[in-house]
Amino acid sequence: MQRTLFIMACICFAACGATAAPGMKVGVGRTVITPDTQPVWLAGYAARTVPATGMLHHIWAKALVIEDGEGKRAVIITTDVLGLTRELTTTVCAELKAKHGLARQDIFFNASHTHSGPVVWPSLSVCCAFTPQELQHVVAQNRMLSERMMMAVDHAVATLAPAEISLGFGTAGFAINRRKRDAAPVDHTVPVLRVSAPDGTLRAILFNYACHCTTLQGNNLLINGDYAGFAMLELERAHPGAAALFVQGCAGDQGPEPRGTVAHAAAYGKALAEAVEHVLTQEMKSVEGALRTAFTETNLAFRPVGLDVFRAELTGNDRFRQRRAERILYAYNAGSPITDLPYPVQALRIGKTATFIFLSGEVVVDYALRIKRDYSGENLLVAGYCNEVQSYIPSLRVLQEGGYEADDSMIYYGQPGPFTDAVEVSVLDAVATVCRQIGLTPASRGH
Fold first, then answer.
1. CA 256: distance to chain centroid?
2. What is the pLDDT of residues 270-293, one digit of tens each?
3. Side by side, which strands form the sheet with 354-359?
């Protein structure tokens, strides 16, 4: 009898242990990153010559910390700025490793690429002619940005709690290929990640779309998050207590049209929010299981350009080419000629249901379409503007066509540009590397 009771107790203990096995946890944090001090110089348009005059709405850093049943964590940090820099992400990663034990491969950054947010120096510094006092002010705002990103993650870690995660896909149609060539590609997909408490209470919505945040143009001097900021505001008004996080897609050659007014930005924000809401009302795929993360860095080579070209630019009349030439020649004379671009690529997989690919720079839409084709059996979210935004990243097609995304934009990023024809292969090989590390094999592959 005693032996029978012992066996039954063991069975009961095992069953209880199985039932109580830990599941997914999620924490959410957010902090305002609107600069506290004046002046605020807005990023993205070289034609601006005066600082911001006010604000339409606050801009934010938001963090989503996901923890699997084994205690592994990954954090996604979204920011309403034009782009982050290596200095900022390295600083934040070091702090998060010290405070929360997060490895570099577990930390994912994305910038919405709003052209109505503050300058993040030295990104696009060729566009700026700051006085020493103005530069000191901008650098102080950079420090504030890094501190606020860490605050968002701290809060997300502090609010980790059991959660149910689900994934769905919608569409929004206001992005066009701004190169406007025949059959120019677009990606109107809107992936949506829903985070709910076990009782069904909505806690967070993460969504992705590929479109430049350039609805408001260079004449705008009001701080805001462009259409992405308006979309997040719409969703958070509709779901009080929940955080909406926007992840920019491969929008290097994608833009809103028509554009130019606050009314346009608000309308596109509303359209995107409605696309997200539609997904939330449909049946979504449950997302659970082990977290797998991967990080690699490749190098994208620039085509060789003779020093005579930059010497001529330095003495020419174009102030932007002058500043680019000064940067290139200074690096050369310091013994560190700019011949290539370090390029980070990351991946995050949750169980076997959701996979995120994070690409740096202003990636054109060809990359998202190619990756989705290569890994056609996966539920993919492909993001650009991740980690650091150091230049446009053209595909081979765009590179061969030429134009702003392939060549002229390099002036404003201070790069010798353009890239060699190997740029697309180099990026896709890095994607394949991180995908292998998280357990993905392509459905098709070939350059």
1. 18
2. 999 999 999 999 999 999 999 999
3. 291-301, 340-350, 354-359, 380-383
Please give the structure tokens belonging to residue 172: 């929004």
Separation between Cα atoms, residue 258 and residue 214, nearest integer Å: 11
Mean pLDDT over the full length of the chain: 94
Q: Are 150 and 92 in contact (CB under 8 A)?
A: yes
At residue 61, φ and ψ (nearest 5 deg) are -110, 130
Question: Letter for the amino acid at 108?
Answer: F
pLDDT bracket for residue 443 (50, 70, 90)? confident
Q: What letter does residue 270 receive in the DSSP assignment?
A: H
DSSP string, 376-422: TTS-EEEE-SBS---SEE--HHHHHH-SIIIIIHHHHTT----B-TT
> CB of 204 within 8 A of CB of 212?
no
Lookup: tokens for 47:
């034609």
| H or E segment to which residue 155 belongs | helix 132-158
CA distances from 140 to 32, 127, 153, 388 (A): 16, 19, 20, 19
What is the rounded distance in angstroms from the CA atom of residue 231 to the CA atom of residue 234? 5
pLDDT confidence of residue 186: 97
How far apart (Å, rounded) are the C-alpha atoms in residues 186 and 356? 19
Closest CA to 393 of 431, 358, 416, 366: 366
